[in-house]
Amino acid sequence: MSYEVRPLTGVMGAEIVGVDLATLDDDSLSDVRRLMCEHEVVVFRDQSLTPRSQSEFSDRLGPSGEVPFVGTMSGFPNVIRVVKEADEGAAFNFGGAWHSDFSFQVEPPSFTVLAAVDLPPWGGDTVFASMTAAWAALGPQMRERLSALDAVHTARDAYSRRMQPLHSGMRGMSIVCDDSANDERVHPLVVVHPETGKEVLFYNRAYVRDIVGMDSEEAAELLDFLHAHTTDVRFQYRHRWRNGDVVVWDNRSTQHFAINDYAGFRRELHRTTVKGGVPSR
């Protein structure tokens, strides 16, 4: 298959032109996977994926990731309908905080596949940040400090029972919070990407809530620094959605944020995740 790769920024993101995700042969899929890891976010325009064909494409990247808390589509247990209805106004939108998908899991997702279904005339962009570029921009002393640390990941500030009213405001999605969100998972703060061999900051604001062995004041100060640093505009790509778009990103080396600026309009996308491995140094 012949296709063209068009970089989207100087640090991350690429549009791959001339690919039909529903008909990729194995050799082309292997090459596309390499580009996903290299560019961290890849965009495929003018696709026509159904829930079934999206599931099939996602499954070719690897086994489906576990989907806690969020209801999936009938008949497609790995597909989430990411929906905000036009009359839900300024209600919270799914993904509306900087995060890496389900990083609180033992084996967080490797890739996420998100397909546009119904878009507002404007707004609803998704912003991505490269944790590879953020790591590379740090000085040697800070790198040495961070490399020795482990971070505590938990879903308590996203899916614990006290968060249920926030999610219940989105009637187009079924999100059920429970006590398992209070579980904690420890991952290294700096990990080696298993496919590129590059070091990356495995950090995101939503799920990293503490640093192992650090007092609360020092940890809060470091986490504030990491959030400000990793979401700096220097490390970002902002995707403006078009009908037919499919965007695939590498959760092992990025975090992202869905902008909630389309009150009065409907937005629906379909999401699948691919199981990853245990993050390691």
TrEMBL record:
| Alphabetical UniProt keywords | Dioxygenase, Iron, Metal-binding, Oxidoreductase
Whether tRNA processing counts among this entry's keywords is: no
Indicate yes or no for the key word Metal-binding. yes
Q: Name one GO cellular component term.
A: cytoplasm
Q: Name one GO molecular function term.
A: 2-oxoglutarate-dependent dioxygenase activity
Residue ranges occupied by any TauD/TfdA-like domain in the UniProt entry? 4-273
In the record, the note on similarity to other proteins reads: Belongs to the TfdA dioxygenase family.
Can you name this protein?
Unannotated protein
Native source species: freshwater metagenome
